[in-house]
Amino acid sequence: MIVDHTNRRVLEVLENREQTTVEAYLQREQERGLLAHVEEVTTDMWDAYVNAARAVFGPAVAVVVDRFHVMKNLQERLTQARRELQRALPKEAAQELKGSRWLWVTNPEELHAEGRQRLEALKARFPTLRRLADQRDALRALFEDRTLQCPQTAASRFRDWIRSARELGLAGLNAFCKTLENWLEPIANYFRTRSTNGPTEGFNHGLRLLLWRAFGMTNFAHFRLRVLDRFGQPQAQ
After folding, report:
1. Of 236, 227, 229, whose CA–CA distance to 13 is shortest?
2. 107 and 32, same structural domain?
3. Of 79, 69, 81, 124, residue with least CA distance to 100
4. What pLDDT, in 10s, does the model give residues 16-35?
5. Domain tally, the chain
6. Which of 61, 33, 32 has its CA nearest to residue 49?
7. Distances from the Cα of 171 to the Cαs of 80, 83, 167, 176, in angstroms?
8. Which runs of E-coded beta strand occur in 31-157?
9. Averaged over 156-165, what is the pLDDT?
């Protein structure tokens, strides 16, 4: 799905997400003028999207990896790292952590008082898990830091975070560090204008509702027309 964030509308629904398909669409619409003034492209961590955007628009257009996809990837890797730590604990100690996953993956301000108390108790009981949680909070704080206003400074801060995270020596967390390094430039580009894929996720929800109401649709052409009819018009600002 190609979304115009400025006018908050769906421009197109493509039949697949292969690079050749995406690139052909971007090239065609750039030549027609629809995408002639693109300044920034936001996407998730899918090589085909990034490569297609770079091939068509070149270095003048910044490619931004959505920060929420980065944090989602981190949460998944943190779960792996936490399980890695738990497997090394004595059975009795591991039992204390049973049912605590939600506490570790939820933002502290979203926990109720009882949940925060239990989380703090677990952090005190398991220092390595506390350090793991601190790494998550530190990366989140980095994205929220309003003093960061350029990609180069942000990239330096990300590298500092990576060095700190690797000191824990956990395979799951190291895998995320590798991902962060591989995607560092487009992730750091977030700090140019702080654009995200939030509108795209909203439209994705709308697409799922269309499918639900139709009890599924097997004809792609019909589905595409419904999406463009429902979400293809510019929305009032």
Report:
1. 227
2. no
3. 79
4. 999 999 999 999 999 999 99
5. 2
6. 61
7. 8, 11, 11, 9
8. 40-43, 62-65
9. 97
